[in-house]
Every structure is written in structure tokens, then in C-alpha cells.
Amino acid sequence: MGGVAQKMTDTVKNAPVLGSSGVHAVAVLTDPSNGQVYGHVDFVEANDGTVIVSGEIKNIPDKQKRGFHIHEFGDTTNGCTSAGNYHRFLSMEFACLYVGAHYNPDNNEHAGPQDQLRHVGDLGNIVGGSGNVAKFNFKDSLIKLTGSRSIIGRSVVVHEKEDDLGRGNTADSKKTGNAGGRMACGVIGFKKS
Ligand SMILES: [Cu+2]
Ligand SMILES: [Zn+2]
User: What PROSITE patterns does the record tag this protein with (predicted)?
Assistant: First the structure.
């Protein structure tokens, strides 16, 4: 056996282990306003129902943390942001019109990924590493790629500051984690397996 058939066998052998749903998703993150922070995030549903989140984001300074969330909407009509000064002039409610606030189907307060009660979209922080690249690979048990709570069609946002995980003792801490503006975002779509 050789040629195409052999290649296909090799492809199957080397394929990642599919989860219960077999659904893979990806978000390609950019910042339409300056393009400095960019990268991609992959999502794979594992057999135990958790979702493996992996990827890399460029231009996150070494050892610095940046808020990392699933936001409610996948509408990047007006960028992420913060695009220019657009959102800085508007109240929080208006800023939520496009990619929206953190995905929060249970109406909980903002918290960290390890907390029992949190926004579903609260994935905490990513951390810059060597070459100012944030690389990550972790599991989350609240986000889903199938069913009524699927995150497909929503967006991933990287913020300008560290997410305080709801522990900042300010009103905003329990809403946004005081993570500041939005540096990059991308819509979560189906990925070819
Ligand atoms: Cu966010
Ligand atoms: Zn949140």
C-alpha cells in the first residue's frame, strides 16, 4: 500500500483524539485598529465533556497577564473595542452592543476560571512568555461547543490589562475584572477536523 491510501492512514493515525462531539472550533484574533496583538485559539471538546483551549497570541509582553474571555456576540462590525476611542466615549451598555459583555447565561458575577460561580466566558488570563508570545493549553469545564450553550458564533477577546478575577474590591471587578480595553478579538467558528 502506498500513495494516497497510505497518506490517509497516516493522517488518521496522527489526528488528535476526538472528543465526544468531535467538534473543533477556532478563533483567529486580530485588532482591526492596530494589528499589534494577534493569534489564534483552538477549542476541542474532550471525551469527559471539558473543552481543551489552546493557542498562542503574539505581542503579549513576557510574564505579563492579559484578561482572556468569551464575549457574548460574534459581531465585530466595530472592531473589538475600544477601536480607537469609540468605546471610551460610550457607557458600558453601549460598548456591549457589538461583541458584548462576558458570555454569562446564568447571570452570575464576574470571577475566575476556577471559581464555582462565574461567567461562562471567564477564562482568566493568558500570560506572555519568551518572544512576547502567550502560549496556552488548558481545560475548561463550563464552556461548550455543542448544545444551547455553545460558544460557536461568540467571540474571544484579549484585554489590555490583567483580569483581577473579581477580587479587585471595586464594582467593576465583579463585572469585568477591571481588564480594561480590548486588544484583539475573533469570532469562534467551526474548524475543519
Ligand atoms: Cu473580555
Ligand atoms: Zn466575566
Answer: SOD_CU_ZN_1, SOD_CU_ZN_2
